[in-house]
Structure formats: C-alpha cells, structure tokens
Amino acid sequence: MTERKTSSTNYRNQSFLEEKCSLNELLDLVSKRWFSDVLFCIKEGYNRFKLIKDDLKFISDTILSDRLKLLERYGLITRTDFDEIPPKVEYALTQKGDELAALLEQMCEFSDILMAELEPRR
Q1: Shortest CA distance to 28 belongs to which of 16, 45, 40?
Q2: From CA 76, how far away is CA 89, in angstroms rounded?
Q3: Distance between CA 49 and CA 47 in Å, rounded?
Q4: pLDDT score recorded for residue 121
Q5: Model confidence over 33-66: pLDDT tens digits?
Q6: Is the pLDDT of residue 2 over 60?
Q7: In this structure, what are the phi and psi dihedrals at residue 112, rounded to the nearest 5 degrees?
Q8: How far apart are CA 84 and CA 116, in angstroms?
Q9: Distance (Å, rounded) from C-alpha 55 to C-alpha 73?
C-alpha cells in the first residue's frame, strides 16, 4: 500500500495523535478496510491465503497480502512456511491477536446494540 507523504497534513496529524496516545495508532490500524475481517477469518480457522480469500470473496490479493503483513508486523499473527512443493504457508493468531479479536468482538456487540438503538432516530 502507498504510504502517506511525510510532509502532508494528514501524516502530521496522525503522528501527533499517535504520540499523544497509542490507542490512536491501534484505532488507525484496526480501521483499515478488511483488517478485522482477516483477523476474524484466522481466528475461525481459515489459516491459508486461499481459504481467507474464498471466505472474503471481494478482497483483492494485494489487500489481503498487505493485511496479513500488517497483522504479522504488529505481532498479531504468526506465519509458518512449510518446505513443500507447491509452497504452503499457514497463519495463526498469537496471544495478542487472540486478545485483540476478543476486544473487537465486544466492540461488534456494542455497535450492534448502539446502531439498533439509533435506527428509530434515523
């Protein structure tokens, strides 16, 4: 994915917010499109690229690859390469990944309740 230009206002704003509180960095991370969906797929046992791709039928290969790299970079999943032909790779949640998935599930439950309460007001 393309990175923001370091001279942009968006970059400076995000940097300021991340320095202010690490929660801002986490919120930016989990708000990326498909991020939580990929995390939940791995939690549900879809541990191979193709399995995740099949489950999230509209995600592109590029985005899926990027999200897997992000999850691995932040220590939320592990990647295991098997020395086989054809190549085989499996993904698994780390303890931190499992903790984040549990927190996101709670947020999903909260958002369902909140949105249901807001529905009559819309």
Answers
A1: 16
A2: 16
A3: 7
A4: 73
A5: 999 999 999 999 999 999 999 999 999 999 999 9
A6: no
A7: -60, -45
A8: 49
A9: 23
pLDDT class of 1 with cuts at 50, 70, 90:
very low
Q: Please name the helix (run of DSSP H) or strand (run of DSSP E) that holds residue 79, with its range, or none.
A: strand 77-82
Q: Residue type at 51?
A: L
Q: Which pLDDT value is given to residue 39?
A: 98
Block residue for tokens 């970079």: 73
For residue 104, give both structure tokens: 């996101």
Contact (CB, 8 A) for 74 and 86: no
Cα separations in angstroms, 58 against 25, 33, 37, 111, 121: 26, 12, 12, 23, 32
What type of residue is 121? R
90 DSSP β-pair partners: 80
89 forms bridges with which residues in the sheet? 81
